[in-house]
Amino acid sequence: MKTTIYLVRHGDVHNPQQILYERLPGYRLSELGKKQAHDLGKFLGKKRIAALYASPLERTVETAGIVASYLNGLTIVQDDRLIEVSTVARGRKLVDLAAERWDFYRPVYTDQGGETLQDIWKRMQKSIGDIVRKHSGQEVVVVSHGDPIMISMIKHKGKRLTVSAIRGEGYVQTAKGFILVFEESRAIEIKTL
C-alpha cells in the first residue's frame, strides 16, 4: 500500500525589515504568499487529500488554511516537529548576517543552542514517519519550512546530509515542494511538486 506525502513550504512572507525571522511571532504571508497559497490549494484540491499537517508558525498555518479552503475545509493538525530551524541568530538583519558569511549550522551557533542538521532530521523523520503510519494508503499535505524540507529530501534520497547538499540550486521555493511516495515506511519515489 502506497502513501503519498505532499511536503510543501509556506508561501512568501511579509518581511520589510529583512531580518532573520526564524521562529519569531508576527511573520505572516505577503500578498504574493497568499496568491501562491491559493495556487497551491487549487493544485492540491484536485487530489484526494485525507489530512493536512502544518508547523505551528503563523506563515505555515496561514498557508495551510488557504490550502484547506480547497480541500472542503479539512482541519489543520499542527505538529511542533515541523517547525522552522532554531538558531541564536534570529532577529538579526540578513544583510549583517551575509557580511559575516553566516550559516545556521556552524558551531558558533549550534554550540549556543541552535539546531544541527541531524537534530532537524530526527524531528522531521519522526513526524513524517508518524504521519505515514497514521495515514497508510492515503494522500497527505504537510506544510513546513525550507531547510527542514530540504533536510528531509536529502535523507530520504539516501544522500549525505551537508549544508551544501541542502542549499543547492534545487532549494525548495515558497509554496512549492516535493511529492514523496512511501511503501510501508520507506520512500520509494520522490518528485518535485
| Rg of Cα set | 16 Å
Q: What characteristic shape results from the CA principal axes?
A: globular
Structural class of the secondary structure composition?
Answer: alpha/beta
Q: Percent of residues in beta strands?
A: 15-25%
Q: Secondary-structure element sequence?
A: EHEHEHHHEHHEE
Topology:
Layout: E1 2-9, H1 31-44, E2 49-54, H2 58-68, E3 76-78, H3 94-99, H4 107-110, H5 117-134, E4 139-144, H6 146-156, H7 163-166, E5 177-183, E6 186-192
Parallel strand pairs: 1-4, 2-3, 2-4
Antiparallel strand pairs: 1-5, 5-6
Helix pairs in contact: 1-2, 5-6
Which descriptors would you attach to this protein?
6 strands; 193 residues
Walkthrough of the structure:
The chain is of the alpha/beta class and 193 residues long. It has seven helices and six strands; from the N terminus they run βαβαβαααβααββ. The protein has helices spanning 31-44, 58-68, 94-99, 107-110, 117-134, 146-156, 163-166, and strands at 2-9, 49-54, 76-78, 139-144, 177-183, 186-192. Strands 3-2-4-1-5-6 form a six-stranded mixed sheet, sandwiched between helices. Helix 1 crosses helix 2 and helix 5 (117-134) packs across helix 6. The model has no long low-confidence stretch (mean pLDDT 94).
